[in-house]
Amino acid sequence: MQEIPKHVTAYKKTAEFDELNIPKGLLNAHQTKAGVWAKIVILEGQLQYTINTLATEVVILTTKIHGVIEPETFHKVKALGKVRFYVEFYK
User: Fold this and answer.
1) Which of 30, 35, 45, 55 has the least C-beta neighbours within 10 A?
2) What's the pTM?
């Protein structure tokens, strides 16, 4: 998993989601637009983050491990029990 580049800045943040109200779009493979990075921030619990590149990468996100979404890269999430998180977007 990459790190968010230092030259991009945050411009938008989603509402807080939990295991009961994760939008269906996040549960299925989707991607950000060209030039848009994002960070998945876990407030409580765990989230499985799957990155679909040539080699699929699966990362368990926690309050200490955030997820980085690269531009135009297909990815999805899955709640692992009780979880609270939000997504912050950068460009």
Assistant:
1) 55
2) 0.94
What is the rounded distance in angstroms from the CA atom of residue 37 to the CA atom of residue 83?
22
Asked whether the predicted pLDDT for residue 61 surpasses 90, the reply is yes
In sequence order, what are the residues at sequence separation of 6 or more whose Cβ sits closer than 8 angstroms to the Cβ of residue 45?
Answer: 19, 62, 79, 80, 81, 82, 83, 84
Q: What token pair was written down for 54? A: 């040539």
The confidence band for 1, taking pLDDT boundaries of 50, 70 and 90, is: confident
Report CA-CA distances (Å) from 78 to 1, 34, 60, 69, 75: 17, 24, 10, 15, 11
Cα 63 → chain centroid = 13
Does domain 10-90 bear CATH number 1.10.10.10?
no
